[in-house]
Write a structure and sequence with these properties.
It is a single chain. A hairpin with a 2-residue loop joins strand 1 and strand 2. The chain has a two-stranded antiparallel sheet with strand order 1-2. It starts with a helix and ends with a helix. It has 7 helices and 2 strands, in the order H-H-H-H-H-H-E-E-H. It has a single domain, classed as Four Helix Bundle (Hemerythrin (Met), subunit A) (Up-down Bundle), CATH 1.20.120.1760. The protein is mainly α. Helix 3 packs antiparallel against helix 4, helix 4 crosses helix 6 and helix 6 packs antiparallel against helix 7.
Length: 189
């Protein structure tokens, strides 16, 4: 297993998941829900920035690896799923939205793995639609974790709107990837 700065950042993102989840098990008397929500939102933002940064550094420094290409999306999905489960428990995200987003992540991950095994991974390469979905999701989640007004802006409303947008883009992008993979899937089943 190669160890370099991009992979270390990915491992850092995975290590931040227990921190994020653990914040919501602390008694309010220790931190207060406002502080807890603020720290959780910042932790998620740091994780999202390391996601961008590790990919940038891996490409810039030519430190890409098969292991890094595997671990990076796993770390992203684990962080998003953990955050969605927290938000679901807090009543800040709807069950259907959480299931749609988590279900899509599992489906597309399995599809990409299978397509890679049959040598057709290019047919499910990341598309702009998926990037828009990720952007909406990565802005919505910290807004929903923060859950307080920020400079007169209701992060609740912004987060709720963007998580619905993310769910719609989730379904749309899943259909796109399945349609792209369908010819290969049909010929192999």
């Amino acid at each position: 297993m190669p160890l370099n700065i991009p992979i270390a950042l990915t491992w850092l993102r995975i290590a931040m998941i227990p921190l994020l989840v653990g914040l919501f098990y602390l008694p309010d008397a220790w931190m207060g829900s406002g502080w807890r929500d603020s720290v959780a939102a910042v932790a998620f933002i740091v994780a999202a920035v390391t996601d961008w940064f590790d990919g940038y550094l891996a490409r810039r420094w030519n430190q890409t690896s098969v292991f890094g290409a595997f671990l990076d999306p796993v770390a992203d999905k684990l962080m998003v799923v953990a955050a969605l489960l927290i938000l679901l428990d807090l009543g800040r995200v709807d069950l259907v939205i959480a299931l749609v987003i988590i279900g899509r992540e599992l489906t597309i991950s399995a599809l990409r793995e299978w397509m890679a095994k049959i040598g057709a991974s290019s047919s499910v390469a990341v598309h702009t639609l998926g990037k828009f979905k990720t952007a909406a999701q990565m802005i919505a989640i910290p807004c929903l974790l923060y859950w307080q007004p920020l400079e007169g802006i209701s992060t609740r409303v912004v987060g709720q709107i963007l998580i619905v947008v993310a769910a719609i883009l989730t379904v749309w992008s899943m259909c796109y990837y399945l349609k792209k993979a369908w010819p290969e899937m049909r010929s192999r089943v």
